[in-house]
Write a structure and sequence with these properties.
The structure holds 2 protein chains of 2 kinds. By secondary structure, chain A is mainly beta. Chain A is about 10% helix and about 30% strand. Chain A has 4 helices and 25 strands. In chain A, the strands form 5 sheets. Chain A has an 8-stranded parallel sheet with strand order 1-2-5-8-11-14-17-20. An 8-stranded parallel sheet of chain A has the order 3-6-9-12-15-18-21-23, with no helix packed on it. In chain A, strands 13-16-19-22 form a 4-stranded parallel sheet, with no helix packed on it. The radius of gyration of chain A is 20 Å and the shape is globular. Chain B is of the alpha/beta class. Chain B contains 4 helices and 9 strands; from the N terminus they run βαββαβββαββαβ. In chain B, the strands form 3 sheets. Chain B has a 5-stranded mixed sheet. Chain B has a two-stranded antiparallel ribbon with strand order 4-5. In chain B, a hairpin with a 2-residue loop joins β4 and β5. The chains are: A mainly beta, B alpha/beta. At the A-B interface, β1 and α1 of A face α1 and β2 of B.
Chain lengths: ~350, ~140
């Protein structure tokens, strides 16, 4: 019977103090050991990029790197466990065939070479990346799916914060099959891209895109979705005219909570994404039942487009809550009646 | 201000190509961290040893955790490997007993140490060139 082995990665007091060291220590033939090997990552900035290689895995005995809910990013920068890369180095290179990432944040430092890359081979592969947050992806984009024609990728509930636009393709399929559901790739800023860029690109595989957002404000030499997409693609949104598949939402402007400050959660007043997604709860290839922060989908009516599901109720969590509001919510007794009335609204 | 986590055992894979390319071998540096790093409870023997190199910057030691790359392809986990079996008996005994060595690499460091960088640098081998290290470490 397959057992699961979990080791912690913490800045202090854990089994390991970096994912790189965990990978070196736990490298093994999981099919012989009959184990699933897990790294449980806690909140800190891990500055040691690394490669997953030298293991043996299969469909039921795989590598899983994840964050517990309390240690996970909150869909904004500099929160939760973050893996940083600098100096033309990729954050994580995955050579192994059966790997899952859940809830990891990738931070691109200066001149990074992207967040996640793969090793190309003829092997059958099952790669799953979900609930991750990518920011500051310079030059080479966030994830290049280039592990070969027999690779199957499932990529869902991720946010790619394109806050340093450059020559980049953030969800870039070079080969294999990519199921890409409910992701958000967005840029809001005053600068323009230094070269051609696309948020999603099919450059040689089978790309099935459902319920994704691509938004690029003020970008030039830019397209939201590049290449051809599988006929099953549906309910994608773009700020230009390129959203692929049926039910495409083109030339749209999603309302984010605070996009100018890197918060790409959907505002409750949004109309273009809210309740505009396809129901993927029973999707045969990649069922989606929650959002990037773990809230159940759907909340009100239908699925929302993008990584974030607007919660039921009038309030959508802003990027920061002022001490005034915190005090009011905690103990309104000392506030005047006019202010107390705000609490009911919140 | 560097501390180097070094593999103290061999990892192996039945596929010889994968074994050479992907498996850490004894003596390969894994990560470099600043002085006073809070190492994890499993970052010790029998899997790892730690080289303490006081007052030397992380950047000065970073090259020892680079992968071996040939024609744009990674061919080994690390370009550099400490010739563990060739280390002086005293160093091997200390590593086996304590899981660490203190290496004095700059005159500015006046604390206790086990060896100087001059004594140990020639045990760092570049696996691509086959040559041992001759360079000093800049503070």
């Amino acid at each position: 019977m397959t057992t699961t082995v979990t080791k912690t990665v913490k800045s202090a007091g854990g089994d390991f103090s970096s994912l790189s060291a965990w990978e070196a220590a736990r490298q093994a033939d999981l099919t012989v050991a009959d184990t699933i090997e897990q790294a449980e990552c806690y909140t800190f900035l891990d500055t040691s990029p690394f490669t997953i290689d030298g293991w043996t895995t299969d469909a039921t005995r795989y590598i899983r790197i994840y964050t517990p809910t309390a240690e996970r990013h909150t869909a904004i920068p500099a929160t939760g466990y973050r893996l940083e890369s600098n100096g033309f180095v990729v954050g994580l290179t995955i050579i192994e065939d059966f790997v899952r990432l859940e809830g990891v944040a990738f931070h691109g430092g200066s001149n990074n070479a992207g967040a996640v890359r793969f090793g190309n081979s003829v092997n059958v592969k099952d790669i799953r990346i979900s609930h991750c947050y990518f920011d500051r992806s310079v030059n080479w984009g966030a994830v290049v799916f280039d592990a070969g024609a027999n690779a199957v990728y499932r990529f869902w509930n991720n946010i790619i914060n394109d806050n340093v636009p450059s020559v980049s393709f953030h969800v870039d399929l070079a080969s294999g099959t990519l199921y890409c559901h409910n992701n958000t790739v967005a840029y809001i800023g005053g600068s323009t891209s230094a070269g051609f860029t696309a948020h999603y690109r099919n450059n040689g595989g089978t790309f099935i895109a459902k319920n994704n957002i691509s938004y690029g404000k003020n970008l030039t030499n830019f397209t939201c979705y590049s290449g051809s997409y599988d006929a099953a693609s549906t309910n994608n949104l773009s700020s230009d005219g390129t959203a692929p598949g049926s039910n495409a939402k083109i030339n749209k402007t999603p309302l984010f909570v605070d996009g100018a400050n890197d918060n790409f959660k959907l505002a409750s007043t949004d109309a273009d994404c809210k309740n505009q997604g396809a129901d993927l709860s029973a999707d045969a290839n990649l069922a989606v039942t929650d959002d990037i922060v773990g809230s159940a989908r759907p909340q009100v009516g239908a699925f929302d487009i993008g990584a974030f599901e607007i919660l039921a109720g009038p309030y959508q969590q802003p990027r920061t809550v002022s001490p005034f509001i915190v005090n009011l919510l905690h103990d309104p007794s000392g506030f005047p009646n006019e202010v107390k009335s705000i609490k009911a609204w919140w | 201000m560097a501390e180097v986590l070094v593999m103290a055992r061999n990892n192996n894979n039945a596929d010889p190509t994968k074994d050479q390319r992907g498996c850490y071998k004894r003596g390969m540096p894994v990560v470099v961290m600043p002085d006073g790093w809070s190492w994890g409870v499993e970052e010790t023997l029998p899997t790892f040893a730690i080289l303490f190199i006081p007052l030397i910057s992380v950047d000065a030691v970073q090259k020892y955790v680079a992968q071996q790359i040939e024609n744009g392809v990674v061919t080994r986990r690390r370009l550099w490997q400490i010739r563990w079996a060739d280390l002086p008996a005293g160093a091997q005994q200390k590593l086996q007993a304590n899981g660490s060595l203190i290496i004095k690499a700059t005159a500015a460091y006046t604390g206790p140490f086990d060896f100087t960088w001059a004594q140990v640098k020639t045990f760092f081998r570049n696996l691509l060139t086959g040559l041992d290290e001759t360079a000093d470490l800049a503070p």
